[in-house]
Amino acid sequence: MNGARGCVVIFGALIVLAGIGGLAVGPATAPGFPAIPALILGCLIVVTAIAEPVYGRLTGRPPLSGTWRPTGERFIDPATGKPVEVWSEPKTGERRYVDVSEEADKK
C-alpha cells in the first residue's frame, strides 16, 4: 500500500471511529451528528481504498505462463507516453499491460 492509499485508509478509519463514537454517546448527547451516515461513509472509503484495482506496472514482454492472451486492446499509456497492449488471464480476469514500444521500434 503506497503512502497516499494509506492516508486514505487512515482517513476512512477515523470517520468510522467518529461514527462509532456518535453511536456510543447516543443522539441525546450528540444532537445533529449523523453517526450512521458517517459510519457508512467511512466504511466505503476504507473498502474502496483497499479493494480498488491498481493500474499495473508496464512489463517489457507478454506473460509466458498460464493461458494469457492478448485482448486486442492497445493504447498510449498517459503516464509514460508508450504504446501498451493489454493481456488477460481468462480464468482469473487479471490484466497485464505490456510495453510494445520496442515492437514498434523494430518495424
Keywords:
3 helices, 3 strands, alpha+beta, single chain, 3-stranded antiparallel sheet, elongated, 107 residues
Our measurement of the CA-to-CA distance between the termini, rounded to an integer number of angstroms, reads 39 Å
Average pLDDT metric: 82
Shape: elongated
Strand order, sheet with most strands: 1-2-3
Oligomer: single chain
Would you write up a description of this structure?
- The protein has three helices and three strands, in the order ααβββα.
- It has helices at 3-29, 35-51, 101-106; strands at residues 69-76, 83-88, 95-99.
- It is elongated and about 65 Å long.
Q: How is this fold's topology laid out?
A:
Blueprint: H1 3-29, H2 35-51, E1 69-76, E2 83-88, E3 95-99, H3 101-106
Antiparallel strand pairs: 1-2, 2-3
Short description:
By secondary structure, the chain is α+β, with helices and mostly antiparallel strands. The chain contains 3 helices and 3 strands. The mean pLDDT is 82.
